[in-house]
Structure formats: C-alpha cells, structure tokens
Amino acid sequence: MIGCRLHRVAGVVVLTFLFDSSAFAADGIIVSRGEDTTMFGVCVPSMTVENRSTHTIDFFQVDLLVNLANGHESTVELQSGYRTGVVLPIAPGGKATLRQHLDLGPSLGLPCSEVKARKIARIVCEAQGGKDCTAAVKAEP
Predict the structure, then answer these.
(1) CATH number of the domain at 29-139, please?
(2) pTM for this entry
(3) E strands along the chain, which residues?
C-alpha cells in the first residue's frame, strides 16, 4: 500500500515537473546574441529571437548599445524586418535573426574587434495588429 502511494506521488511530481517546464517553454520570447558579420570592413552585429509564446510577432526590435575600443558608444537598431513595408512575422515556435538595416541608419564604422561591450537599451515587440506583445522577454546581449 505504501509502495502504491509512493508510485502515485512520484507520478504526480513527474507530471507537475513536465507541466511546469512546458508552460515555461511555451510562454516567452528568448533573445540571444547572433553571429556578427563583417560587411565592407565594418562590424554588423545581429541577435536571434525565438518565439516560444502562443502569439505571432509582427515586428521585433532590439536597440543595442555598443561600447567601442575608442571610448565611444553607439546604438545599433536590430530589427526582424523593416518597420514599414513587408511584414516578416515570427510564428509561435519560430526563430528570426535581428539585423541592422544599413540603408536606414549609420554603421558602427569599425571592425568587430573594436566592439568591447554590449548592452540592450530598448526592446520593441509588436504582435498582430500593432499591439504590444504580452509574452515575457528574456534577453542576453
């Protein structure tokens, strides 16, 4: 009888653990550092966004504050797509690379070796219809 109760309790603990982990994984947006590229000798940082929420993201932007070796700071806007124009939605379970649109803003003007530190200054997340995203965002520069 005690063995049977322990078996049931263990089953409930396992189910609770599975439920809790799937709920955490299913509700949120994870932003992480992407691969930096060099274009025309200039560093172009990127980030990756993973949509673990149940809602589609229409637009996502991270303003990345970059400290350079020369002592200057620069803000780089990394976006999932152009703010106006074609929408590139990030569906639930989907991933996207956030890129800097060099045709809309200034480049860092230096190679990637000159980037000394990064910090996220602002995050913009818009769901369908231009509404703010309701899912929690976890971001690491």
Answers:
(1) 2.60.40
(2) 0.76
(3) 29-33, 37-39, 42-44, 47-51, 57-68, 73-79, 95-100, 115-127, 137-139
